[in-house]
Every structure is written in C-alpha cells, then in structure tokens.
Write the structure tokens for this entry.
Amino acid sequence: MTLNPEHIATYAETFIKALIDYSPKLISAFLILFIGLYAIRFINRIIRKIMVKRALDPTLTNFLSDILLWVLRVLLFVTFIDKLGIGTSSFVAILGAMGLAVGLSLQGSLSNFAGGMLIIVFKPFKVGDVIEAQGTIGTVHEIQIFVTKLINSTNQTIFIPNGSLSNGTITNYSMQGSRKADLTISISYDTDIRKAKDIILEVLNNNPKVLKMPAADVSVKNLTDSSIQLAVRPWAKNEDFWGVYSDTLENCKLAFDVAGIVIQPFVKELSINES
C-alpha cells in the first residue's frame, strides 16, 4: 500500500485545523483543572482553620475535611470533562453504573464507611482515648473514613475496620476521667486482717497519685483453702492509673516485709484418687 503525499498533506492540514479549533477548549479545561486543584486545597485549609478555631472535635474536623476534599475533587473532574466537550449526562450515567458495580463489590468498605459515620456522630470514643475493642487495647491515634488506628502499649499500630468496631462492644477507659484498680493480695490465716488492711490503707494514703475521692477500698474478697484474699481498689486519674497499679503492689509488699506479714503465694491443690 502506497501513501499519497497529497492525502498525507490533507490529513495533516485537517488535524492541525481541528487542533487549532479545539485548543481554546483544551486550554480552558486544563486552566480550570489546575486552578480548581489549587482552590480546593485553599478551601480545605480554610475550612480546617475555621473548625479548629471553633474548637470542633479534631476527629470530626479531619473526617469532614476528607469528605469535603473528595466531593470537591469529583465536582472539579465533572467540570473538567464538560469543558472538554464530553457529554456529562452520558458520563454521569456511566459513572453511576460503575459506582453501582463498585458498591456491590465493596460492600464491606461501604459498611466501614457507615461505621465511621456512626462513630463520628455518636462519639463512643475520640482521639487520645484508651479503648478495648475486637480483642485489642490501645490508644486511639486517628479515626479515618474506613478504619480506626490504635497504638498499643508496645507501640504497635493496629487498624480496626470501622464496620466491625461500630457493631461490636467498646470499652472506653478514658471517658470517665478516672479509673479504679482491682488488685488482689493474699495473706496467710495467721495474719491479723485488720492490721494488714491498715497497712494497705496507709500505703494508699501516702501515694499522692491515689485519689482521695472516691476513697480507696480495702476489703476481704475471699477465704480460700490456703489464704485470705484482700481486694485493694484505689482510684486514680487515667494518666496515673498504671503507675498507681504497680506502686500499690510494690509498696504493699515492702510495708508487709517491715511489719513481718507474709504474702501467701498461690497454691494449686491437686486431688489424688486412690483406688
């Protein structure tokens, strides 16, 4: 097949003419795209500052900012396509069909999105709270659209899907501002119970991190075959809880040593069947 130079010249002339005729739309479309991207970042930054200035919850601020960002990007993309001369009605129909197909295949993600909305609206926890959910305990680091990020005590990052998180049981250790420890100290039957309780209460009263109100409680929890179990329940602020927990055990042991009180170790009793 031989190419006719006249045909090539005609095609080139037609292409150049079409490009010249279409160039204003092309230039204006890309101007709208670049200016729009800059405007979206600017608007998003302003909205964030307004929400922060009004002392809106940081979790809600990040969540709404992310949603606003993607909504504006979709609107900008539709405007860009329309400016190029592509029919937006057919494009929106195709986009809707694609959205339905994607939605059916991503039901779990949509469930996680809905779960994130429920967490934002009903606020069972916020960023900085210590929670227990889905068998995990950690500090809430970030609430994203689909997942919630936790940091546990060993500095590991854990991502929990918002769908299962919103539908499961959540224990919030930070919501009340203070926590009560529930410790068990075992003493022998030879020990004076009142003396042991007085020593424990003195240890708790000497600890400035133990709250005076509500008052700490020391009581007999159980009488086992090998020991008397004392329940020790001091109150502390959330940030002091684990320090109070460990200090109470350590200081009670030291005080018992000085008073000559022996902490009874756990004894596992075995029954032997004789034939």
In short: The chain has seven helices and ten strands.
